[in-house]
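Working notes for the structural subgroup meeting. M.R. asked for a predicted model of this chain before we commit to crystallization trials. I am recording the input and output together here so anyone reviewing the notebook later can reproduce the run.

Input as submitted:
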Amino acid sequence: MKLRSLGKSLALFMLALNASPEGVASAIAAPKKAVNTITSPAQTEPRRYLLGKPLGLALSLEAPSLGITFRPDGDSKEEVVYQPNSLLNWGVGLEYEGYGATLTLPVASSEQDVIRKGETKHFDLILSRYWDEGGVDFFYAVYRGFYRDRGEATQQSTLQSGESPTYQQRPDLYARHIGGNFYHVFNPGRFKLKTPVEMAGPERVGGGSWLGIFGLDQYRIASSDPVLAVEKAQKLDASARFYSSEFLSATLGGGYGYAQTYGPQFFRLQLLMGFGPQWQKLEYERRDQQLERVMLGSKIHLGAEYSYSFESWRLGALLKYDGVQATLPAVRVDSRVYSALFYAKTQI
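Returned structure, recorded in token form:
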């Protein structure tokens, strides 16, 4: 048996010596070729993830709610609420390498709605910059033209009589909101405010991180006449009988964010809250009378995002809620914005 095995080895050795280099090379390469035919589906899956420097175009819809509420002695029956006639806004935005700009304008109201509630002129601009460790955004929003919500009970009685309710209109009432938010990510290796540019490979990647936020918000509300009628104003705290008011809030807070990528899919959630001092300055009754004091201000931000990447495109949606509140003894100013942003990005 040993002699037979030795003979086979010598025969193979002689064949190798007589073989051409091309034959040896092909013999050596053959086993490798056979091994490469055994591949996983993930290795053969075509690459379909966004690369390079993406330029993004976004279309947004938002439902703003800017309410100015006057409530004497906590009595809801005496409550007076002013709101803008702007139920829905639309916007367009651009984004490139973390820089973004979004312009928002109101959706035109129907002629009948303008007759009943008046016309609200609205302008909203947001500039943003995000990077791995944080981000910043600045915003400027103006509303001019409000109507007085007369209360649910009054509206119901009017509707039962078969008439369309007509509201008290204040085209001179003006509200402006200027501010900025500064964000910090404590663990950028697991979570980023900036959407990742490259999502290569089928592995699941992501995690969560604590977030910090510092916000500055300045509100100005003004009118050419007193905001409230005399009979209503007399029941309220002196600070509610104003022609104009300014609120400057500095809020500090934090929250948590979580993001996950799985191949071409990306998902993110984040929640932030902040509280801080609010400096209030009011001009009321006679124009030469002013009141200044410090109260507590607050803000909240919620966000959810999902996107899917193809070979050179990414499609996604972002849902957001932003709220800021200013409170006086008999007056509350609530700014709430619910928005849905749909975007498409491509590499350039």
